[in-house]
Please model this.
Amino acid sequence: MSNQTLALNESLSKEVPHLQIAWDSTSLGYLKACPRKYQLRIIEQWSANRNSVALQFGILFHKGMEAYHDALARSVREALPAGDYPGALRAAIRAVLNEFVEVVEAYDHPDGGEAVIHRHQPWESICPKRNIDTLIRALVWHSDNYGCDPARTIVLADGKPAVELSFKLDLPLESPAGERYMLCGHIDRLVEYNDTNWVLDYKTTTMTLGDTYYSQFSPHSQLMLYTLAGGVVYTGKIHGAIVDAVQLAVGFARFGRHLVISTKSQLQEWLQNTICYIAQAERYALSEYWPMNEESCHKWSGCKYRDVCSKTPSMRDEFLSLDFHREVWDPMENR
Amino acid sequence: MPEKDKPPSPLSVADPESLRELAARDPLSLTDDDIDTLVAGYRAERTEYIKKQTTKTRTKKPRPSVEELLGGIEIP
Model:
């Protein structure tokens, strides 16, 4: 591992080096896909210089929806029982327009070698389906499509809407140093739908919304985690998860919702699996070795570290510093 | 300064198409009025899209009959 100083990651053990204590669905996903991928992204903090357009679009859409529901709930509390939809939409659009994204560029340093520069600028994308135009369209059409939404945002005891709800759950498992492992994350929305409570998660895609698309959500680790956590964070019973899907196209957006119900025994099984994976991560950290899973290298459009892992081990740090920069992924960070 | 007291942005333009370009090029220059105009443009686009979809459904060709499918082939 490179000796460069890493940013503080609150999710890691204070006692055992490179042992993660607080786990979110992203870090679990990396570990399950490939322990080496997990090592590179979570432990060594290597993030691609070019952020995926899909990821950036998703982040901005979430920010817009959070601002929308926050403003809508505030208007209901303050004056308008039916909700100020135009005001909420304005807040959503303003939230995405005001969002500057970090751009990291590598350049040749005058003193020799490569260096990177970090800039903040409005999000730019030349992707025809994911850009600022399709983003604002998705927000406006989503608001109009659901109008007086039958999935109503739950209002928490402190009067705040249950939007972008952070959670932390203790696990019945301790590290060798006696630290209690935990699960954490951020739930997009908790809603009441048909007299039952649900966690709602936004998903943006360019796939057609149909059986093929929705089949990926059952079973689905993130939705299982959120369903489990929703029941703890919110005292009422959580029935399951609603996938609030947005299909993005060049000239239109389509919307669909899909219910994913998990039984108690399914959630227990998921928890048991997760504890097994965390125990495995503990072994990797104690042995300071995270093995490669070559079966994952070519899945989807290929792992972002594939080009690095295809090089001989002594060359990898050099290749990492060319196309990646250090950026901490800390599940404990508040949004 | 409250939004309503702000002077109109020199870049501000009335039509939604130009505003879309402005949103991509200079997002911070958009006023609340600009955003409302932008929203109206996306709404009009959605109405048009729904209309097209409805028309598409209405003008869908009726299913061919068995006789048409057989194209004159006689069933023994």
Notes: Residues 68 and 74 of chain B are 11 Å apart (CA to CA). The radius of gyration of chain B is 25 Å. The helical segments of chain B are 16-25, 32-58, 66-70. DSSP finds three helices and no strands in chain B.
